[in-house]
Amino acid sequence: MGQYNIEEEVEIAAGGEFERERVPQSKLKGWKSFLGMYAGEHAAGTEFMIGPLFLTAGVSAFDLIVGLLIGNLLAVLSWRFLTAKIAVDNRFTLYYQLEKICGKKLVTAYNLANGILFCFLAGSMITVSATAVGIPFDMEMPKLTDTMPNGMTWVIIVIIIGAVISLIASKGYDTVSKAANYMSPIIVLAFIACGIVAMNQLGVKGFDDFWNIWGEGSDPFPGQIKYTFWHVVIWSWFANAAMHIGMSDLSVFRFAKNPNAGWTTAAGMYVGHYMAWIAAALLYAVYLKSPEAQAFLSNGEAPPVAPGPLANNAIGMLGIIAVVLAGWTTANPTIYRAGLAFQAIIPRVSTFWVTIIAGTVATVAGLFPAFAMKLLGFVALYGFILAPFGAVIVFEHFFYKKAGIVKNYAEKANISFNASVFWAWAISFGLFYFISVKYDVFLSFVTLPAWLLCGVLFLLLSKRFQRNT
After folding, report:
1. Cβ atoms within 10 A of the Cβ of 185, count?
2. In this structure, what is the dihedral angle of CA atoms 66, 67, 70, 74, given to the nearest 10 degrees?
3. What are 205-234's pLDDT values in tens digits?
4. 8 Å CB contact between 212 and 61
5. pTM (whole model) above 0.85
6. Which domains does the chain have, with CATH numbers?
7. Where are the alpha helices (DSSP H) in 85-238?
């Protein structure tokens, strides 16, 4: 049988996505296939929220501009030398790789946590889109400190948006991908336009004026914590911790011809997590000079961070459209991914219905503005929970021979629950979460120590408890 026919049969057996097989040579993609995807995925709804939230944390110009430059570089390096390297070496999805190491029962728990967290993230993006859709209806915008829905108009708009996004996501990856490809160029152009208009509204004539927008920083707004240079660096590095050091993007880079495809993540980091965050912060800086915002501040309250009105103030209807689309381009693939995670738990339920279930959970989450308004903290928690599982994959891949342990132990020993993985994660998570809460340590600061400890504990526990196979 020829090589082409073998690969064709493998693809058919794997449902066309090679979920439980190595990706064959004929299906590998060049770096250009990843460039557009990362540029589009990371210039989306989250950016409209995160940029302004940096201002509420009182960052200085140096902290923001230089901190983001370094933090995003560290994220790119993590993708290139960890995620892309391991993905190309093994060519398995995250879920199949974890199943080989952890066993099916433990992966089921991971999938449940992953799916729920994806739903909450998608819910915050439904909230973002709702702030734009609500403008023509003169809807009261959620405040930075709001946790509950603030009116029936808000509830109705969120439900309608959630239903539309869920239906698009339920049509499958091709529909989700096409929707993102159509929307992404509009969103990137809108971010650029918003930044230019906002600088004009702020009277920026040169670099000094631009720098002075943040200056030496300020006190954080009520209910927010103060961000320093290291807060910005570490948070921006680990904003996508679940994707790079958490190894979620193994599923993406397994199609890459070589690990250099990992460098394409720079398009997402420096278009989305640099240019777009700063552009969105500029929109909020304009709003802070308004009488409405000053009234909030004089009363000791934080002015609302509602992307819809901010973008509308800068570029009108294009801004409203961009915010709606930006929320969709993040929520659509996120709900789709959540559906896949749930389907791994309940495989007899169709992709359509698990995606609808995920969309329903996300829509309910979107009703509560807290997920969006506390996005900096939620993203930090999301990465902190999931990233240590990636450490298990990384440490096994690079150190299993030196540690003298069996690679893919759950598969070879035919066990469904690898206790070494569970206890490595539980101890590292529990210890550093306790430190964060007890001593009020910024959660992103303990993500890397927890990741390293989990990896080391996994090797030590595996060495101690693995049986010869």
Report:
1. 13
2. -170
3. 999 999 999 999 888 988 788 999 999 999
4. yes
5. yes
6. 1-30 (no CATH), 31-379 (1.10.4160.10)
7. 85-90, 94-102, 104-133, 152-170, 173-201, 207-212, 229-238
